[in-house]
Amino acid sequence: MRVCVAYRIALAVLLAFLAVSPVRARETVRFEGYSAGTVVIKTGERRLYYVLGDGRAVRYAVGVGRAGKQWFGRSYINGKYLKPAWSPPDEVKRDNPRLPNVIAGGTPGNPMGAAALTLSGGEYAIHGTNVPGSVGGFVSYGCFRMYNHDVIDLYGRVGVGTPVVVVQ
């Protein structure tokens, strides 16, 4: 009987923690300083903001570039893709030579997840992930990883040409 009660308490605590975990929470927050329709990524916070205007933005958790792999500046979304295929960039392939040249979209091994928003000026994207535990960390080669349900939400809000600002 004691084991059953302890199990139920532990399960309740775990479920309560997961329900309020700030890394998992997409929420509308106060946010100023950028025009409505802009995507702002704050790498130090590991958060992406989609600016709604009127002092508000939708805030999402993101995985960002590891030490030495981060970049900062301005870009814009130049492509939108659902279940994209992925070809590892040269640097990734050098570090992981066993990776295939292409991983088909929608397959479990594809790190792009449910959708990708490609950024102008390089090999970077805002995309989903096949490793949800990496969201909220310093984990990538410069791309921005989101939970699949969040990248689908953002995909519906932005268009090609949407400005993206990456700051520390």
Structure characterization notes:
The N and C termini lie far apart (52 Å). The protein has 3 helices and 11 strands. The protein is α/β, with parallel strands linked by helices and 168 residues long. A hairpin with a 5-residue loop joins β7 and β8 (125-127). Mean pLDDT is 88; it is low at 3-22. Helix content is 21%, strand content 30%. It has one domain: L,D-transpeptidase catalytic domain-like (Beta Barrel). It has a 9-stranded mixed sheet, covered by helices on one side. The protein has a two-stranded parallel ribbon with strand order 5-9.
Give the terminus-to-terminus CA distance. Answer: 52 Å
Instruction: Encode the helix/strand succession as letters.
Output: HEEEEEEHEEEEHE
Q: Tell me about the largest β-sheet.
A: 9 strands, mixed
Determine the CATH superfamily: L,D-transpeptidase catalytic domain-like
**Strand tally, please?**
11
The whole-number mean of residue pLDDT values reads: 88
Strand content: 25-35%
Indicate how many domains the architecture comprises. Answer: 1
Structural class: alpha/beta
DSSP summary: helix tally: 3
**Which architecture name does CATH use?**
Beta Barrel
List its traits.
single chain, 168 residues, alpha/beta, L,D-transpeptidase catalytic domain-like, 9-stranded mixed sheet, two-stranded parallel ribbon, 3 helices, 11 strands, 21% helix, 30% strand, disordered N terminus
Brief characterization of the structure:
By secondary structure, the protein is an alpha/beta fold. 21% of the residues lie in helices and 30% in strands.
